[in-house]
User: Fold these one by one.
Assistant:
Number 1:
Amino acid sequence: MTRKFDPPHQMKATEVNVNLEKVSLSINKQIILDNLSLQLSSLHSILMTGQNGSGKSTFLKIISGLLKPDTFRLSKSDTNKSWSASRKYLRKHFCYLHQTPYLFSGSVHDNIAYGLKQQGLSRYEIDHKVNEALKIIALQNLSKRDSRTLSGGERQRVAIARSWVTSPSFILLDEPFTNMDKHSRHNCYDVINQLIEYNTGIILTSHDPQNGELSFNRHLHLFQGTINEKDL
Amino acid sequence: MNDLVTASSQAIQLLIYGDPEIWEIILISFSVSLRAIVITAPVAIIIAFCLSYYNFIGRRILIALFNTAMSIPAVVVGLTLYLLLSRAGPMGDLKLLFTQEAMIMGQILLCFPLLVALSHASLQAADRRAWETAITLGAHPFKAFFTVLKEAQFGLIAAIIAGFGRIIAEVGSSMMVGGNILNYTRNIPTAIALETSKGTYAQGIALGFVLLLLALTLNLFVSYIQGKGEVLS
């Protein structure tokens, strides 16, 4: 099955709202997430802060459907839905990026095309979307390069582009700037700001409050298993 | 020493001039072992994947059992299978004893735990983020499974080659359940055992050369594959 292709520069995603209820997880009797409730909109760009081990990555993995929580509900009316049904919904709308992104063996083009192939797009559509994405991350010249020879900053940008081309409602960035130099960091800021411009919901975790480079409009702080709204 | 040199030169002549009996034995060896590995590898890899990526009750015990079964002697497998397939045994009605199918069954039992254990080690060592990345990019778990296999291909190929290496050279099981019948169930190891007991060393040495050559080829191939993986990573 193929989809109608819309060039990314024309794409302004429609708003998707997700209500998370009663998100709890304990590991070895230690509470990691304690009955969290949260409303998310794909028009939000959220900075999530918290100390090491506060459960930021765990939270992102749960809402992207990669990790099963102890309790979870998508909305107040969602009393009968099983985790597998919720997981399917979450995997459709949320795309998770590891702190150190994993790139598959093959070229940069192959990596960005991976998710598009899963959607059953034609080769022409895939090539077109990949080229658009490469332009956005300013790595057109590296299309054929073996992905495992890229620098840390380039890997992160390829991973962001790879997620973005699949058009998720939310992209979850797990401490993306770790071990990145200033130049690479600025390149990533540009890419992430473009995602925000295209109405892709962003949740970005960090130890530190933002430094003004990214246009966040919401700040969440995770502390002892609970989430609090904070000023930016 | 002179006997060894004479027998070796006779062996080389047998191989070079294409002694039909020797080549039939080599063909049977490869045919039986290749069929055994082709049947075993997919099942073993799927089980290894489940052991690596799913948590279930008894998982650790299963891993320990597969690791233990790796070192099970071929002759014990042969004896067990012989008792099962012999006329008085529970599978006697199948009339499989002293057939190539019985040899394949023995070789499957021998390489299965080895393949599971080595594939499991390879998948455990592979990066778990590959699975999560494939899933989060919208891959169906079935497709994500193949993505993970592709990412761990170097270790998995080495596991399959190690399994093949074990069964192509095993004598205990093939001798007991195959019966060493000329042009039917006589393979390289059983032929070497027979020729040595008869004192006709030339044919035994010729077949030994083939096994050594095979071992060398497989090792070179594994080195090449592993080297390729290192360079790329």
Number 2:
Amino acid sequence: MSTIPATGRTEADRRSSARKRPSLWRQSLRRLMKNKLAVSGLVFLAFMFLICFLGPLFSPYADNKINTTIMNHAPYAKHWLGTDLLGRDVLTRLLQAGRISLTVGITSMLLSVFIGSLLGAIAGYYRGVVDQVILRFADLLLTVPNLPILFIFGALLSEWKVPTEYRMYMVMLMLSFVGWPGLARLIRGQMLSLREREFMQAATVLGLRDRRKLVHHLLPNLFPLIIVVATLNIGGAILSESVLSFFGLGVMPPTPTWGNMIDAANTIIDFEKHPWLWIPPGVSIFLTVIAINIFGDGLRDVLDPKQKK
Amino acid sequence: MPNVIEVDNLSTLFETEEGTVKAVDGVSFRVREGETVCIVGESGCGKSVTAMSIMGLVEGTSGKVTGDRVGFGDRDLLRIDRNELRTIRGHEIAMIFQEPMTSLNPVLTIGEQLMEPPREHLRMSRKAARQQAIKLIERVGIPRAEQIFASYPHELSGGMLQRIMIAMAISCGPKLLIADEPTTALDVTIQAQILDMLRELKEETGMSILLITHDLGVVAEMADYVIVMYSGKIVEEGEVSELFAHPRHPYTQGLLRSKPILGQRLERLYSIPGQVPDPLSLTPSCYFHDRCAHCLDICTRREPELKTLEGGQKVACWLYETAEVEARG
């Protein structure tokens, strides 16, 4: 290879080389791609999303179509995963349930991450009274285990006779309500250490506004942490939703979720004689949550190497 | 020439568990337009705290700044509200730090950070700020400005980062640049380049520089006026040539003696015996008395005041107040 004479380069050349520099994100992406386990988790999740959101469109049994002539039928050519008590196609319901479970998981994650990082960042940045108020409230929620709180909310929803179609949204709100304190604490801790860093003093000396320091200087430093926690949170939210729905306190049938599909099969007869009713949703929950956790761990290794172990 | 900044009787106290530490103790000085003033002293003498107090950076720590006045134009930086102080910082007074490696945000590109002050203070458009940033990168002597503009801090060396810090500091055309040990973390050749550049920029823009250092070589090269601090107090100050030629205070004399001389090989460099006194147990005395070869009786009992000698040099030492000393025994 010959060396390129510096004088031979045009302005346009230099501009394009300036653009081509790999950004921090691209470097992280490249490192992530080297982690086989994380990539397999990601591939599985992508597959799950695709079939859950697109699959039902191709199903001839959409919209909970009831067919009483083939109740509780074992899997066969026309119904790959058999039919349930009302003769509905289990595969179609499984995919529709996945749509709901994933949506609930992601939406409640987004909401709890938004609340958690906002409150955590404010608490860590301003400290003092604001910090104390936010922190004590977070502690209050953290001292009580999440499930009892969720059960109480679920029971209240049933008591108030919230229409079934709104219950999904209420479940999202409930999950994000119990989900934010952990993240808020993490973000606050990071914030406390970041705000003392020298570059923040430099930003102060440059006369930047608080909001600019918070949003433009500190938040990007928190992104790796937020992304990792957010990813892992989706798994937790899907699990909580399943548990709630299993106990009949989450999303109500006929809207299918993986949790209430298992719940629908919780008699000894279904358990022994109709395993196609509960194995598919169980396996779906298991694999999806595992895939999310594997992917989340991979992300953590790439974005936040300090947190390893 | 008019004064850019006038510091009157500035004191900074830190509350610690063992008691109150007076990090800066009644310091007064001024920086004139286009002048370079150096504050020298060893570690812990309060030189950095002085700079931080002027910039209002002590607020929010356990420290407290008191003082008569820090005059900047017709404003008093000690009694100005937070928002107005913010509009002065980075705009009219800029500051650079010792560690360029940690003074830039690691997740933002050089360009983004370089565009911030002009966009904030001068309300420059993104495009104009970008053009100015590229020009500034070239001005501080870094080639391939376009490429550097898009780089992250970790891709640059310490010397380059300090140049970037200087570019940021001068981006809004400040009247005063406070440089807190700007070359301490850099190697010697880079040090010289950075100092040359600072001097050139000063000539070009007419700004004043308040340079904080412990390096007498830097002082000799840069300063117009020198202030020597010891234990939070000014012990001697004067024009640079005068002070180097005739150091009056025993501490200044010691400092100058401990400087290596080019071409002279010594077994051991001279060092001032003893150590800096514990700031928690200071009694009214000359704080240098237990390390001083010329210590008098009065030195252990009373603080000397900063007195102007003929020729304009100022010194706080009982040796130069012999008449008074004899009178009081």
